[in-house]
Write a structure and sequence with these properties.
The protein is mainly α. It is built from 5 helices and no strands. Helices cover 56% and strands 0% of the residues.
């Protein structure tokens, strides 16, 4: 889950900050970032909303950080 750590680092957040904002414990976040534990669907939704990104990005299924593709005219 490289993108879970990457987006945290890009935003200059500590695991403690993410824990305080999301309620997901620091130890669980660390396991997600190291790939030791797969996030629950509930926690994926919480993290996606917190970072304003997509679940697909957090799961490394896309490199697009935006939750939705930009609208074209």
């Amino acid at each position: 889950m490289k993108n879970i750590k990457l987006i945290r680092v890009i935003n200059d957040y500590t695991q403690l900050k993410v824990q305080m904002e999301t309620g997901i414990s620091q130890s669980v976040l660390s396991k997600y970032e190291c790939g030791e534990l797969l996030p629950t669907s509930e926690n994926l939704m919480i993290l996606a909303k917190f970072y304003n990104t997509s679940v697909d990005y957090l799961l490394d299924l896309t490199d697009e950080k935006a939750p939705y593709p930009p609208k074209t005219k």
